[in-house]
Amino acid sequence: MSSSAEEPVQHVRVAVVGSGFGGLGAAVRLREAGVTDFVVLERAGSVGGTWRDNSYPGCACDVPSHLYSFSFAPNPDWPRTFSGQPEIRAYLERIADRFRLRPHLRLHHEVLGARWDAGRTHWELDTSQGRYTAEVLVAAGGPLSDPVVPDLPGLDGFPGEVFHSSRWNHDYDLTGKRVAVVGTGASAIQIVPAIQPRVGKLVLLQRTPPWVMPRMDRDITAAERRLYRLLPVTQRALRTALWAVREGQTGMFTKRPALLRLAERLARRNLDAHIQDPALRARLTPDYRFGCKRVLLSTSYYPALAQPNVEVVASALKEVRGSTVVGADGSEHEVDAIVFGTGFHVTDMPIGERITGAAGRTLAEEWKDGMVALRGTTVSGFPNLLMVIGPNTGLGTSSMVLQIESQLNYLVDYLRRLDATGSAALDATPEAQRRWNEEVQRRMATTVWSTGGCNSWYLDANGTNTTLWPGTTARFRRETRTVDLAEYRLVSKQAPSAPAAADAPAAADARADA
Ligand SMILES: Cc1cc2nc3c(=O)[nH]c(=O)nc-3n(C[C@H](O)[C@H](O)[C@H](O)COP(=O)(O)OP(=O)(O)OC[C@H]3O[C@@H](n4cnc5c(N)ncnc54)[C@H](O)[C@@H]3O)c2cc1C
């Protein structure tokens, strides 16, 4: 329920939206920087983001846990090299306790709208449980938090069970059922082997086959865990090694895709080793270059597809007729349940429609030709808005937590600069933002994501890659270490009598010359 204008308004220095890795990490870094006047607004009833919402069978990270965790909170007790969702969720819950974040959490607070008030130089937020104003807004609503279920003819009339991978219905027993799994992305390839042994029949609707490499997953032994606890330096060394390997591989994806041929041969061998049927093998062989779409890791996906109760339909789902799913190839399959592994609103993130900048336009309107930001974090015309995992910050090969931590460095320096300059806000200049994005897109041109001959979720409706960072995480870390005031317009605090509408009257705003 939206709040009324008469409700009391709570003012905070910083409002953080979301409590996944991004929002919780922001909260930790804010406290560490001495900022305690902040809230974390979370629409759900608990923290964890991705790792709260995705509880499907088989859900696990695909970047090793020792790298897919905060640098400031190593977990010596990860049970597996690629830990499962329950462990990652529990880790994030522990972060909330250990760093005393609970008093800042406002659960069941969905941010319905955020509007920059240029007169008062603050953000006005409308949440499902009241109004807030904030000097700074940190948008950590997540790049993969709003599921996409395709709008298919006949889906409403399907008499069976339907759910998305990120909204798993644990009350529905799949045992013996005929189940259609739609999609072959990172979630679907974890779901398929997890449910195949207990379903009666599994129909996999595959628009495009992924490249799949074996996942070197294993239990982490008690002795190893003891070692990490007693000698934390060993765990740090392991993390560094995991990071360095991925950094070393980045150039193949971004500059020299031809070098990925060897990996492509290994992936093909992985397919050949598990799939004997030539027709099925042909259906599972990608027709685009390795790396163009996210490379998936699994040792159990192909063996599951080779089982007699699985049928791979090399076609998208076109429509539903009663209890029959119909592929674009015309094939028909009667099922009891449909599981959508069809991904998320990535290049059209819903929070974009809820954030309104200085000129009265929403982020979504601002981004109608494609998402852009300065250093993936700030957006011209949206003063004091910092995004976590904003445009072109995603990774194809390494841990998103590294990128998040880089952006949190930027956030902390941003607040320091605000204090140091005595300004009410910083607003990225259009020129700085344009320069940054031109450079990002120039580097994007040589990547396998642009040249590999696929159509991936990394690309927006115009075919522009607005999601991935075309470089190493070390480079992104350098680029976001400090805020360069020359890239910003300083917005002064307005005198109470000043006209409220002025977005940026030249007289009121001192152009940074630092
Ligand atoms: C199944 C799955 C597996 C993944 N595995 C990996 C992996 O192995 N390695 C990797 O690097 N990345 C992985 N990712 C990507 C993952 O999303 C990021 O690594 C990371 O978890 C993102 O954290 P976040 O805080 O930015 O977003 P999220 O974790 O999505 O958190 C966003 C939070 O914001 C809240 N929110 C959104 N809108 C609002 C609103 N309007 N008001 C209030 N609250 C709101 C949501 O409820 C959510 O809690 C995976 C993603 C998925 C879906």
Automatic annotation (TrEMBL):
Enzyme Commission number(s) from the entry: 1.14.13.-
Chain residue ranges for the region called Disordered: 494-514
Keyword Metal-binding annotated: no
Low complexity bias (residue ranges): 495-514
Gene Ontology MF terms: oxidoreductase activity
Keyword set includes Lyase: no
Pfam families: Pyr_redox_3
Keywords, comma-separated and alphabetical: Oxidoreductase
Domain of life: Bacteria
InterPro entries, A to Z: FAD-bind_Monooxygenase_sf, FAD/NAD-bd_sf
PANTHER family assigned: FAD_NAD(P)-BINDING DOMAIN-CONTAINING PROTEIN-RELATED (PTHR42877:SF4), L-ORNITHINE N(5)-MONOOXYGENASE-RELATED (PTHR42877)
Protein name: NAD(P)/FAD-dependent oxidoreductase
Organism: Streptacidiphilus jeojiensis
